[in-house]
Design a protein that fits this description.
Elements: H1 2-20, E1 23-34, H2 41-52, E2 61-67, E3 70-72, E4 97-100, E5 104-113
Parallel strand pairs: 1-2
Antiparallel strand pairs: 1-5, 3-4
Helix pairs in contact: 1-2
């Protein structure tokens, strides 16, 4: 399951960042998920739950923003509203280039800071 390795990587990056800031617990992690990333949001949520279970961040939620793919024809510059069949430009039959919406991006983390008692 590809989503499990993605969840693990997201968790490691998030945990490293909040450790640097002296945080105790992750509250939420927000990611952008491209339409063509090959990642299923429901499977990523399940993988996230598995990766964070039995950790200090067990209650951390993952927030997923879906991002539409943007295809452009490198020859004629066409930007179709819908994905063309087989990824070819309907005007000039050139193979479309993916400009965005093919990856996953860590957008932000929310965390609980440790309270210093004096």
């Amino acid at each position: 399951m590809y989503e499990l390795s993605v969840a693990q990587e997201l968790y490691c990056k998030s945990r490293t960042r909040v450790d640097e800031l002296g945080a105790v617990e992750l509250e939420s992690v927000r990611v952008a998920l491209g339409e063509l990333s090959g990642i299923t949001p429901e499977l990523l949520r399940a993988a996230w739950k598995f990766v964070t279970s039995e950790s200090a961040d067990e209650n951390c939620r993952i927030e997923i923003e879906l991002r539409a793919a943007r295809l452009v024809c490198p020859k004629c510059g066409a930007v179709p509203e819908a994905h063309p069949p087989a990824g070819y430009c309907e005007r000039c039959k050139c193979h479309m280039r993916v400009e965005s919406g093919a990856g996953i991006e860590l957008l932000g983390v929310r965390f609980q800071e440790e309270l210093a008692l004096s």
